[in-house]
Amino acid sequence: MTTFFITFGILFLIIFAIFILGCMIVWSSHINMTKRFTKRYGYASLNEFIYQFNKVKDWQFRGYGNDSIESYSNKETYFCNDIISFEGDGMILKNLFSYLFALKIFKTEMKNLEYGSKLVPLRWRIMGRSK
Questions:
Q1: For residue 105, what pLDDT band results from cuts at 50, 70 and 90?
Q2: Exposure on the CB side of residue 46, measured as CA atoms within 13 A
Q3: What is the DSSP string of 50-110?
Q4: Sign of CA pseudo-dihedral 119, 120, 122, 125
């Protein structure tokens, strides 16, 4: 019985390590892409990201596909999968967990744009969605 728990524990640790490694690769891609494709960049916390993200009220799909959004009034404010830019300045999130949470906010905004107004809860939009 104890060998089962030891085996299960080792398996869990291996899966967790692979997950963290995958997230670290995505975060390092965010850092490299932001440095490469923005003229100026800086490091910011999650709170600063949320503050800047909520200041923009006119998000729209960007012309490069449905995996990026930009501000309608300021084309220098955008969020692609790896690059975050507000008013032309790149924003690099300081740690992995801040970046993962920012991706969650980004995906939620993408769903809001796809399904309509932000004022209606997502579960209602999915039930009443028409194509």
A1: confident
A2: 12
A3: HHHHHH---EEE-TT-TT-EEESS-TT-EE-SS-EEETTEEEEESSHHHHHHHHHHHHHHH
A4: negative
Residue 50 one-letter amino acid: I
Domain of residue 107, residue span = 2-127
Q: Whole-prediction pTM value?
A: 0.73
Q: What is the dihedral of CA 4, 7, 26, 86, to 10 degrees?
A: 50
pLDDT 10s digits, 80-99: 778 889 988 999 999 999 99
* 2 pLDDT more than 90: no
Q: Per the structure, how many domains does the chain have?
A: 1
